[in-house]
Amino acid sequence: MSEVVNRxxxxxxxxxSSSEETGTHPSTVKQHELAKLLYRELCSLGIPEExxxxxxxxxxxxxxxxxxxxxxxxxxxSHMDTSPEASGADIKPRFVENYDGGDIILSPDRVLSxxxxxxxxxxxxxxxxxxxxxxxxxxxxxxxxxxxxxxxSYFVSHSETEHGDICIAFTPDEEIGEGVEFFDLKRFSxxxxxxxxxxxxxxxxxxxxxxxxxxxxxxxxxVHPGEAYNKMIxxxxxxxxxxxxxxxxxxxxTTRDHEGFFHLTMLQGGPACATMKYIIRDHDRTLFxxxxxxxxxxxxxxxxxxxxxxxxxxxxSYYNMREMIVPDNMFIVNRCVAAMERAGINPLIKPIRxxxxxxxxxxxxxxxxxxxxxxxxFHGVYEYISCQSMEKITDLLIEIVKGVVLDT
Length: 408
Ligand SMILES: [Zn+2]
Description:
Blueprint: H1 3-12, H2 31-44, E1 52-55, E2 60-65, E3 74-79, E4 94-96, E5 104-107, E6 110-112, E7 128-130, H3 139-157, E8 166-171, H4 185-188, E9 193-198, E10 203-205, E11 210-219, H5 235-244, E12 261-269, E13 273-282, H6 285-306, E14 309-318, H7 322-325, H8 331-342, E15 348-349, H9 357-364, E16 370-372, E17 375-376, E18 384-386, H10 387-407
Parallel strand pairs: 3-8, 3-9, 9-16, 10-15
Antiparallel strand pairs: 1-2, 2-8, 4-7, 5-6, 7-18, 10-16, 11-13, 11-14, 12-13, 17-18
Helix pairs in contact: 1-3, 3-10, 8-10
The structure holds zinc ion.
């Protein structure tokens, strides 16, 4: 078995599910188990102890492999936690060697079938790792960690290869949106990095949504329905009116690629008062601002048409990292594309219909596109990854580091 696959199996054996419930940092203590393991492994590679740092308070690992010449530093980041949406405990990986392109029986009632997941067909002849149908696999994002660790081990043992500083960080709680909360940019020290947290091999994303959320509180006027004539203002009907003013063509289920949307995530209440929540997404900053303005005017209109009182709380969540990359920092993307070509990987550049840790970091000053880690069907029991993808992505990371020297 190759080094990257071996490492991957070791990391998925550690349960690191994060949790939305606890409110602590990290959200679950068990993430420290993987942090400790990675800390020990980095030290045992022969990286001097002063260049490996374990933030015991917040559960982050930082590491620097010092460069051999005067080249700019490049960073790589992966997250240690797995999604709370499926169990990450006691994962029993299954190997499917020389995959024949057919159905893979995970368990008596779960089948990983190319009919449901057509991407499977591109892995004919490869070795896949799947779950036993009871847990997630943890390729998101332990494949990224295994690839970064194997790349690190390559450069430590090939000291003759010229390179700049390689900065590495492993973070907790990405899956609950808190991965960069305590990220120490100063300690990380690179000015740009790649999060190795994407899906299929070749994936490269430097655009994500601009994101906001709005909570709308509607106060109606509730009176006995028998005496309601010209008196009652039913908050639920006002909520309905607000939602009906948003076109069906601007919803998550009717949009794709670069199209933004309004997504009603919550509606509750009664005739006296009701609360609605939307998330608002658009890659384009102008259209994003327009959407925010529009929902506020819809609320104002509904208030004046019905006489209800409508309060709202509109908040930005994160922004599209593209603005930080195009045009001045496009070399970060181009360097990755060139490295993919040298590693024999076909680049698949696509916008992320969501956000990433990298998006938040980009606005904190660390520019951070997202690249493939190799897996599919994240956050559930159908998750799988190809061993060959992990090996090639390791080569890709090595080529990115070498690319810094080539470009300098
Ligand atoms: Zn991830």
